[in-house]
## 1
Amino acid sequence: MFGAELIETSGAEDHAPLLVFYPPKVAVSALVNSLNGASSFPLSLASG
């Protein structure tokens, strides 16, 4: 969607640091909001 590429990630129970390459025309806030929405949907399904 944004032309972003996930370079590296590691995760813990309460957070997940990401190294992301994305085009300079994409606002960081838009990218983060998209990632938050994409990650919260599966979590909400798993919790009931």
## 2
Amino acid sequence: MATRIDHDRAPAPAGPGALADVEVTSETPPGPPPAPPTRPAGRWRGRGGQRAHLSGKAKLGLGIIAFFLLLAVFGPLLAPMNPSAVGAKPLQGPSLAHLLGTTQTGQDVLSQLLVGARSTVFVGLLAGLVATALSVGVGVSAGFLGGASDEGLSLLSNVFLVLPALPLLIVVLSELRSSSDVVVALVIALTGWPWGARVLRAQTLSLRRRDFVLAARESGESTWRIVVAEILPNEVAVIAASLVGTVIFAIITTVTLAFLGLLDPSRWSWGTMLYWAQSDEALSAGAWWWFVPPGLCVAVLGMGLALTNFAIDEYSNPRLREGDQAVRSRRSRRPRLTDPTPYRPELATRAAATNGAATNGSGAGAAGAGAL
């Protein structure tokens, strides 16, 4: 119970009747303050307090990449038999003994697929890392330093851009005595860095004029300190997209070189499997299980990398991210149930007039009956 005094009324005179002018009312005491809203599980807040979560493309792409990375690491250990061992059942279709069938010489296709995953993925990752490192070094240096350094590094990038990549790789690999995975990755990286360098140079030219970079220069920070602490953190999304794109290029290139017979055919990879399938005319023999699995693995891995690249683009581009969020919010709304019959005003007016006439007629009939 609480006592409230009405202040709008005139003050009562002091005396025995003063308590008569006091209005006593009862009020319900205020309840406890409402609990703060809880954050939905599975979401976290990024910069500025905004909700941040992985999109569907990012989850699917990262899941595919993680699967093939595990396959490259543990694939040779999971191979049921030696991929080079000759069997007694050539061109046998998928069965319990050979889940993906056998080749023309009776070799197990599943074992070749599992063992060849390590070489293909290793060459793609190594070539992507080396090419991305060259792109960052050349592109960021050219964009930030400017002047003669920019002109010289830009000229170097343009020279490598106009060189045909595949013919150059064929010539270089034919002259080298060793075609190990490391050598192949380094040769592919030599021709795969200029595109990323040009993108990073353009991004650095835009960042070098920003206020925080000018403030760092005025405060006496060294050039490499500004590049490492101010420029590179703002180019993480661009560098990641360049890495993913270069890995896709490297995987496709190494499979192409192995399919053309330019790599060592005794070293198992997905491209080597396609080379032997083409040499032994697997398509003419109808042995689809020989060439479909490696080609499908290359396609699925490329799709996973491409989806990851799209997700990185959405993260770095606010317009794409806002558009994706708008589409997701529209899909989450429940559609309203409406009458599918189209509305026509003239029919509605005619129906109202008909109902009115029927009502007047029934009223008149009732009045006549009452008079009788």
## 3
Amino acid sequence: MFSVSSLKDEENEITKSASVSSKSTSKTALWEEEKMGKQLLLWRLRRCMLLLCVCMFAVSGCSADKKEEASKQESFSEAEEKKIRIGISFDSFVIERWLRDRDVFVATAQNLGAEVNVQNANGDVAEQVSQIEYLIDKKMDVITIVAIDAGALSDVVRKAQNAGIRVICYDRLIRNAGADLYISFDNRMVGTLMGQALAASLPDGGEIFQIQGSSSDYNVDQVREGFEEALKGSGITIAYTTFCDNWLAELAFDAVSEGLKKNGGKVDGIMCGNDDLAGQAIRALTENKMAGKIPVVAQDAELSACQRIVEGTQTMTVYKSVDKEASAAAKLAVALAKGEDITDASSQIPVTETIDDGSARIPYYALEPIAVTKENMDEVIIDGGFHLREDVYLNID
């Protein structure tokens, strides 16, 4: 095989021979010189051809490398383009549980290869509409919504669907929107469990306060229906009822204080829309030296509520496995993004129920709530891994 260096050596030898021959002036010497000159020219030509081949090979190699790199970049761009994109808009993170919902939802979706864009409306309906429109502009495949106002988002939901985006109502139903999925706990059952707990605590009946959540949250209506149904025939009457707009816990303190004033300082039990409200209601009872004497029921199984239950100032809470709800929602969001039929019995998480949103029946995935009291705290909350024992019994042990 020829190389540039070997050709250079041969050229040097020929040049040296030609130099020696040039010293002779005979006819034979002249002929030899002419022959060597031609040979030198031939070797130089071969050298140039070899250098040309080397250059062409190098250029070809660079071109191949560039094509390979371009191909890799194109494949990466296509992968990024095909990556599932999910947007989620939260009411706010004032309520403790939403932080946990966010973390589980995001982690599950990411494990399935999706990207998640998290938005927080901080309790502002107009801001939530704006955030959903932003997610539409960003061309999300699915938008998941924890609605602030059940009746204020139908137009923006339809706008998303018209853009080819699937919409999930998370935990709270959006009315008259025709969303692609509603996932939540059975809210009527949540209310039923609260009513049953109060009825068991007040076997002789009595007068109670009903401190509900936001009036714009459709879940509140469902919980109330289940609660009031469970009280029928119990001898319990609702002496005072009110709503706490935007689920502001401080309003529960004011509500209990006002209820006591209106009812002559008397109350036999209190139903609260969630544990956050219950904390403030119990604070009002404490100021009136009634804490621990009046049964209080609520929902969400927040750590503070579990602590109050084992301490004796709250009677029960309704446990709703946030991990199960958020995980299922993320999996269903990915399935919808892939165009799968989530209502098919053979799907990974088959959605077999429907619910009336006011304008249409939409797919509904319902999870089962569990009543938690001092008696089953360890079994449900601690053994279930929702809270640590040392945290729940912090003020007891």
